[in-house]
Amino acid sequence: MAVPHHRRFAPRPTVLLALTALAGCGGGSEPSTPTAIAVAPTAITFTAIGQTQQLTAAITDQDNNPVDGSAVDWSSSSPAVATVSSTGLVTATGPGAAQVTAAVGGIAGIATVAVTQTVADFEAVGGGGQSGGAGAALPQSLVVEATDALGNPIQGLAVEFRVAAGGGSVQPASASTALDGRASAVFTLGSDVGSPQQVTATLAGTDLVVTFAATATSGFDITLRYLSTPTSAQGEAFANAVARWETIIIGDVADLRANAAAASCGDNSPALAQLVDDILIFITLEPIDGPGSVLGAAGPCFIRVPGNLSVVGRMRFDTDDLAVLEQEGALQDVILHEMGHVLGIGTLWPQFDLLVGPSLSGGLDPHFAGAGAISAFNAAGGGTYAGGSKVPVEDTGGLGTADSHWRETVLDNELMTGFVAQAGNPLSAITVRSLADMGYVVNLSGADSFTLGANLRAGPLARRWHLENDVIRGPIYRMDQTGTVVGVVHP
Amino acid sequence: MKTRAWLCAALGLSLACRARPAEAGPQACSPSESSLAPDASVEGLAGQYRLQLVASSGPNAGSVAAGELRLLPYKSASRPGATYPFYGAAEVSLEKVGAVAGDPASLDPGAPGVLVMRIAPQSDTAATRLMLRLGAEANRPGVVRFDGGYTVLRVREIEDDGFAGDWESGAPLPRARGHFCAVRMGDEDD
Fold first, then answer.
1. pTM for the predicted model, two decimal places
2. Is B17 inside a domain boundary?
3. Separation of alpha carbons A453 and A150, rounded Å
4. pLDDT tens-digit map of A354-370
5. Which of A418, A419, B55, B177 could, after both became Cys, cross-link A405 (CB 3.0–4.6 A)?
6. Hey, what domains does chain A have and what are their CATH numbers?
């Protein structure tokens, strides 16, 4: 709707005098009447809301003489696009097209107005610099905003979101800026804890790009409680092991308020009445069996119901071996290995029906039946393994070694075999995926490179020895969500 | 003999113990309250012993296992902080006291059923320790396990006619404990 603005110029004294003289002469000439009006400029293009432009209207009479003092009415055909003041000042108010009209005495002049916002600024206004659980959606959406030169939001622009690093996902891949000039997307982080996680937002058809960086953290928390005092080097090795497993297990497990009497997780364990998120491990450093032979031992004491995943566990190390281990650079691997047992590797396989044909029950080819671990075993070169069923589990070494580790003769120096290798002990994707088979959410990229070696096709060897005993392991208590013990494994 | 509480406490005479090892009950081998003397000598430890293990905790608490122990001088490489002066074999039913067996009867020097370890103190305030590790596989040089079953005898007292102390066994965490007495039956040359 046109909105007229009237400006009626008051006759100036000089004009009045001239008009009086003309009338006194009685010459019979016609009075000056506006017959034409020219608006300048005739076209305006605005690139930002709020920009202004002054229009002028030149009025001429029938003799083509300028007429001054006439009243001009200014109006806009679309005030949502542009408004015009009573003096002809046009202001952009929104995108689109409009006409501004200057009218006087039945004649009118027109100027066209086009308002097309141009992006002057494209920036992140929300969701940057977040940390979140690996593999999980960030709590805040990624938000970009497009504005013109005067800071007004621009609606209807296409923004393309793309994962630039970290292997996560972003939804939607494309979005339009809303009335507030903003477009948003949800960033689900990749599973690789510690690696860069980035998403770019590109304004379609331009080279304007905004980069969002995020940090993927593990949703899985391991808490250590020392029942003996470690050296600083030992403490560092324990901390490193925690960090390593937390990059491999990344999914949170439901918190649990554990209630347990003293000595229920080793002779020296204290009473428990605390929230556990996600696993608590007691650590004892003490003499075990002298230098060499057994370096340490570990396992869960309490597991969750439902789920069967560890809640509280313990690790025990032989102080007669720690210094030598440290000197030989093996301490880190030993701690990592033992922590793996607390998490359930080799200790909870029976609870998940993943250990088939245990050797301590007379089986000749114990193996781990988890689909993920088998797939990883095949990918590591085990596709042609003909020595038995996959994944082969240790069949020698007796209680505490057999049925609780990968088979040394096949998996060689993998971290979770039962024997220390002289070289490094890689934590393979077989181990990582075995954790997934048990129900953990894992990060496959956290695994070390590992390829099955020359022992692959040798098949299971004759047992070197076995222990003629049936010493009972455990017990492992089953604890429900209220922290109440509801059962026991290995009674 | 300074303290006889661990040895034939009820009978009072060590000879009586030697004469009736098979019938010996828990009362015949009492826990030792001593600590190994800093100057304790192991020079004459080789020989044959009547070995008795009493379980004070574990699945078979209160049980007794009795048998024989033979120790021989051992020529073996040492590890940092430890020497291995003797090896040997034990004929004893460790299962009776809930301990891990692990073939303690092996006399193979490459994998002896018993290995005596003298462990140097790790600090100024600590004392030298003497330990017997049972199990041929556990004593095989160069084989090191993360976990595994073990049975060890920790010597707290050495006398002319024997030694005594505590024992512990587990697989892999400690499952059974108790005390032991080893009463000399004769020298290795006998």
1. 0.71
2. no
3. 67
4. 999 999 899 999 999 99
5. A418
6. 5-10+29-115 (2.60.40.1080), 121-217 (2.60.40.10), 222-489 (no CATH)
